[in-house]
Amino acid sequence: MALAIFDLDNTLIAGDSDHRWGEFICASGLVDAAQHTAQNDAFLKDYQDGTLDIQAYLTFALGALAGRTLNEVAALQQQFMQNWVEPLILPAAEDLLNKHRALGDMLLIITATNTVVTRPIADRLSVEHLIGCEAECVNGAYTGRPTGIPSFQKGKITRLQEWLETQETQWETTHFYSDSHNDLPLLQWVNHPVAVDPDPRLHGFALEQGWPIISLR
After folding, report:
1. Are strands 141-147 and 129-138 parallel, antiparallel or unpaired?
2. What are the angstrom distances between the C-alpha of 144 and each of 22, 34, 41, 64, 147?
């Protein structure tokens, strides 16, 4: 049995759920659409360029949740999943997950997107174990602030190591599937890295290293 780790956005789904959530809350009238869209697009470019300030982004992305109760956000999550995420589900990604299940592997999604957005997606993909950036919640309502270590770049290794300490199993074989050069630290940490529909920087690095390159599109 191995540990099969998956990035989420543009790996297991055909898009960026974090950016889509921003589009969703704009369309729902929860934020000023023009201002939010401009900031959302700027942060996405920073991510693609490898220059994202993750704390600044999380503060921005979670700000719209401030003061909203768990039940209020759950209703938003349901709308988001049905209308904005379901079209992004990739049959080939579900096949890959099922392949690892058939081998008896443990499945884990690790993503820089917050768990408010990604927990329902992990549930849709029937992946129990999820590591993502965490949103602070006090007395049943979101504060709009992030909490804990962001699972981004080297932070993915830190969060994974913390998670591994809670597990009884020690895996000798670890797979990690990702599309992004931001995940190079974790891709180099595991013993079976796989580039999935990779961005140009990851594609070039994967070719140099002789890593498998696959497409789920």
Report:
1. antiparallel
2. 14, 20, 20, 7, 10
Q: What is the pLDDT of residues 63-108, one digit of tens each?
A: 999 999 999 999 999 999 999 999 999 999 999 999 999 999 999 9
Multiple choice CATH, 3-209, 3.40.50.300, 3.90.1150.10, 3.40.50.1000, 1.10.10.10? 3.40.50.1000
Measured from the Cβ of residue 140, the count of other Cβ atoms closer than 10 Å reads 8
- What pTM was estimated for this model as a whole? 0.96
Point out the residues that are catalytic: 7, 9
22 contacts 121 by C-beta, under 8 angstroms: no
205: Cβ–Cβ under 8 A, 6 or more apart, which residues?
A: 181, 184, 211
